């Protein structure tokens, strides 16, 4: 197997995660949350998402998720906002 034959692998919240080919940050968040997302990162169901995304320590704003392509070796952190405190 050569490097060109495998799916990109990222580190997602500390664990290895294989991506299905070229995936955007939006694709990953839709997969992780199990929700359909609009191109601007808002949930298609009109609800709230409450998610922040950082790639290699840099926060990626929601409106840029659909244009941000994840690559092999990226370290991705998805943080969910929690109510209360």
UniProtKB/TrEMBL annotation:
Domain of life, per UniProt, equals Bacteria
Q: Which InterPro entries match?
A: Beta-grasp_dom_sf, Mopterin_synth/thiamin_S_b, Thi_S, ThiS/MoaD-like
> Which Pfam families does this entry report, sorted A to Z?
ThiS
NCBIfam families hit by this protein: thiS (TIGR01683)
Protein name per UniProt: Sulfur carrier protein ThiS
């Amino acid at each position: 197997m050569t490097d060109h034959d495998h799916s990109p692998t990222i580190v997602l919240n500390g664990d290895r995660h294989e991506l299905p080919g070229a995936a955007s940050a939006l694709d990953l968040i839709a997969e992780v949350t199990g929700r359909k997302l609009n191109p601007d990162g808002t949930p298609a169901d009109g609800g709230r998402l409450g998610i922040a995304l950082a790639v290699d320590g840099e926060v990626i704003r929601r409106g840029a998720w659909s244009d941000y392509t994840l690559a092999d070796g990226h370290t991705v952190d998805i943080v969910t906002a929690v109510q209360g405190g």
